Amino acid sequence: MTSLPESPRPAPTRAAGAFEVRLSDSPLPEPDRRALIASPRFGTVFTDHMARCTWTAGGGWSDRRIEKYGPLNLNPAAAVLHYGQEIFEGLKAYRHADGSVWTFRPEANAARFARSAHRLALPQLSAEDFLGSIEALVRVDAAWVPSGEETSLYLRPFMYASEDFLGVRATQQAEYLVIASPVGPYFAGGVKPVSIWVAQDYHRSGAGGTGAAKCGGNYAASLLPQQEAQSKGCDQVCFLDASTNSLLEELGGMNVFIVGADGSVATPELSGTILEGVTRSSILRLLADSGHDVQERPIALAELRAGLADGSVTEVFACGTAAVITPIGRLAGADFDLAVADGAAGRVTTGLREALTDIQYGRAADPHGWMHRLL
Ligand SMILES: *Cc1c(COP(=O)(O)O)cnc(C)c1O
Hints:
- By secondary structure, the protein is α+β, with helices and mostly antiparallel strands.
- The chain contains nine helices and 18 strands.
- A hairpin with a 4-residue loop joins strand 12 (255-260) and strand 13.
- The relative contact order is 0.14.
- Pyridoxal-5'-phosphate binds at residues 90, 214, 250, 253-255, 275, 277-280, 320-321.
């Protein structure tokens, strides 16, 4: 990345200022940090600090702070360990060529976090605190935001039930934290297509369940089918709807799109059992902007199989914050195994990936005001 003259850093917002900074007494020495940032493995390395605040039913949110990254002091009776009352988010901080640091549509993550909290009967955290916690943490750990191509600082806000109580009811005490991890390009050595196993015996969510919430429990339910996919020689699992076992939903942590030979694009509609990805909605917007025929609608596995077999479906891809857009090269299940025609580098898939990352890394205009400057 070519570097431009550093642009002046904006003053902290009031929301970030609400987080008291308690600096770590043992930050990683700079050479070690540089070495870690140079080749990070996803989710294995964390910055010197974390953002945190505490909620009680009687007192609301308090003790907003940035403190040294480290283990939590958890009572063995903490409700989260028994009943899984937990939610999370995932977003990234991107360094632009002029040194400035930005996030992508963080208000959308804040709003989704509030919806997830509601569904899991956890307390509401205001968008102001969500955005303030992220800004405050990235300010303190700014040196951890990498600058290499397609690198970023992955931000993981989460909230859990911390009350020490084995009774089954909504917690009266919760912790909210943000941790941050430098990440390299998801596809080191170029974008590679993945293979998908369609689970026909397991579902990740059902009507009225928690499928639309970003909660750890959904991921726990996806791990055994994910193992099954791997045992069948596939990289990832795709789920079908629980009520008819015939409609495409999504992968364990990514939404899915199909592209027709005629250029039309479709993704499963939000039925209440699918997670509404920020990447998904941004892709829908970019496609609409460029005049594509794009639909959110039920997609039957039978339709996709027929389309792959007769060539009317030419590209399939998955999307989410971590990998942005991942081409799918092969789709298999108990009684089928189909290659995707333009599986490796389809025109629509590649174009969308470029358009989105160009906005995120400041290489293209941002007509929708999606980028939010932190530093
Ligand atoms: C987080 C997540 C996604 C992707 O959402 P983005 O906001 O695009 O990162 C898709 N599906 C599930 C189940 C998820 O948890």
